[in-house]
Amino acid sequence: MTLIKTLKQWQESENNVTPERIYLNRRKFMTKSGVFAASAVGGMLAANKLLLAADGTPLKKLPHQKTQYNPGEELTTEQAITSYNNFYEFGTNKTDPAKNAHRLTIEPWKVKVMGLTEAPGVYDIDDLIDYNNLEERIYRLRCVEAWSMVIPWVGVSLASVLEKLKPLSTAKYVRFQTKLDTEEMPWTLTQGLDFPYVEGLRMDEALNPLSFMAVGLYGKELPKQNGAPMRLVVPWKYGFKSIKSIVSIEFTDQKPLTTWEKSAPHEYGFYANVNPNVDHPRWRQGKERRIGEFRRRETLMFNGYEEEVAHMYKDMDLTKFY
Amino acid sequence: MSKLKAITSVRNVRRYGKPIVFLVCLYPAAWLALQWYFAYTGQPHGLGFNFFEFTNRTTGEWALRYLLVALAVTPVAKLTKSFKPILFRRMLGLFAFFYVTIHMCSYVFLDLEGNMAEFIEAIAERLFITVGMLAFVLLIPLAATSFDKAQHWLGLERWRKLHKLVYIITPLGILHFYMMQKTTTPEPFIYLGIYILLMAIRYLDKRRAKA
């Protein structure tokens, strides 16, 4: 299968680690100060709690390899990444998930695999994620609400997960679903979205080397508000595509109807590629607010990943397929 | 005796009640200004991680609340059969205008960094901004004619008619809030419920007066 070959090529380049560059980058980050540090200070009071999960247990460190995936931009603070979240299952305010996501139970974590695959069944998370080969990838995250972060994820390539699940060649899309438990997530009863949360990718998007399945951030396992224990990271698409706390993976030949598209089809499309030239009806997409900065930045085409992903959309009218 | 009592209490309302209510109304704005000062000087603050979104959201909510509080004055006066609440009406209405104004300023000068082209584009292209802007514009003549002399110049009847615009402005503000949200949450409906209640009291009172 050509899929496996692509994967290998990518893994080779992936293993070219540049520790010096990352080291220098980190130093630059650590020594930067001034007015912009103010945002970090906001979370300082909570800083002691940050090494702990919401239920008070410490977040396990995850051994991982550094990679070249690093835009070289200042990292968003761990406090901001773990306190400012959209996870509507736990409330619609940005501060709600950090307060409420402790209700999510993640052990044991089973993932149902179905549809056009040779290997349907219920998998344990350990069967899907190779914890001995975790890597760190620093990606930009751009929310459709026009704010952004830079996040050091820990995980594995999505392709490495999907490869284990042996999709049939007839599979054109992959559909993901978030856990739904109305006792753990009573907010799902009142928040006006149709849960369980559903997201999807075209097969070629899912197998793109950038697509990532994260199990951690900042070198530790994912806090629940960030989508523990496993979540998608698709850095060239708006954040809502990067579905959290995944419990099912389905291979299909039908384009999945995603939660936001279903909720407001004229506002949220299936593709949801970051595109400064196509505005959302309520948010101008040309600029973004990087969390922790006072001035806005220009939004980059495909969130700065044009080189890696533009070829997948070259014959498509992106104003139509938004 | 009762006359004397009424006079002194009105004086008390003017002398003590109004300054106290004034300070209470000012508190959210003062708190917000202080948090921005803290944020700028690198101290712990309450603006969260997205200062701009937080400020837009907070000032917008206070604007809606003061609109409803100002709208509540007349029904409260009617229900308590006292004219004293009316003594606060102008101040509360002006505070509603004050919070709508800082909400606008937060959006235009903080969020959009004063980019007027972007602002005009937003009014033209984003319907929820159009609705919010309309509410603000309609509020201006009310604030501008809030002083005693304006009543005299316009004539009481015309002044009253003009100020009934707030019956349209308030639901426009609530609509703006509803349209701004990504999903349907209870908050706009709570504001709407209070608005309907206040209008219902007005309507019932008017009908009773006619009968």
The pair of chains with the biggest contact is: A-B, 33 and 32 residues
Q: Could you tell me the mean pLDDT of chain B? A: 92
Query: What's the oligomerization state?
Result: heterodimer
Number of helical regions of chain A: 10
Overall SS class of chain B: mainly alpha
Going by helix content, strand content and strand pairing, the class of chain A is: alpha+beta
Largest sheet descriptor of chain A = 8 strands, mixed
Largest sheet of chain B: none
**Low-pLDDT sequence parts of chain A:** 1-50
Let me know the number of strands of chain A: 13
**Apparent shape of chain A:** globular
| Name of the CATH class of chain A | Alpha Beta
Helix proportion range of chain A: 10-25%
Question: What value does the Rg of chain B take, in angstroms?
Answer: 19 Å
Key traits:
heterodimer; A: 322 residues; alpha+beta; Sulfite Oxidase, Chain A, domain 2; eight-stranded mixed sheet; five-stranded mixed sheet; 10 helices; 13 strands; 20% helix; disordered N terminus; B: 211 residues; mainly alpha; 9 helices; 82% helix
What would a concise description of this structure say?
Chain A is of the alpha+beta class and 322 residues long. Chain A is built from ten helices and 13 strands.
Please provide a written account of the structure:
The complex is a heterodimer of chains A (322) and B (211). The radius of gyration of chain A is 19 Å and the shape is globular. The two termini of chain A are 31 Å apart. The model of chain A is unreliable at 1-50 (pLDDT under 50). In chain A, the strands form two sheets. In chain A, strands 1, 4, 5, 8, 9, 10, 12 and 13 form an eight-stranded mixed beta sheet that branches. Chain A has a five-stranded mixed beta sheet with strand order 3-2-11-6-7. Chain A has ten helices and 13 strands. Chain A has helices at 2-14, 19-31, 38-42, 78-83, 96-100, 125-128, 158-164, 203-206, 259-263, 306-309; strands at residues 65-66, 110-115, 121-124, 135-142, 147-157, 173-178, 198-202, 212-217, 220-221, 231-233, 246-252, 287-290, 297-298. Chain A has 322 residues and is of the alpha+beta class. Chain B has one domain. The two termini of chain B are 33 Å apart. By secondary structure, chain B is mainly alpha-helical. Chain B contains nine helices and no strands. Chain B has helices spanning 2-40, 51-80, 89-111, 116-125, 127-144, 148-154, 156-163, 166-180, 187-210. The interface between A and B is medium-sized, with 33 and 32 residues.
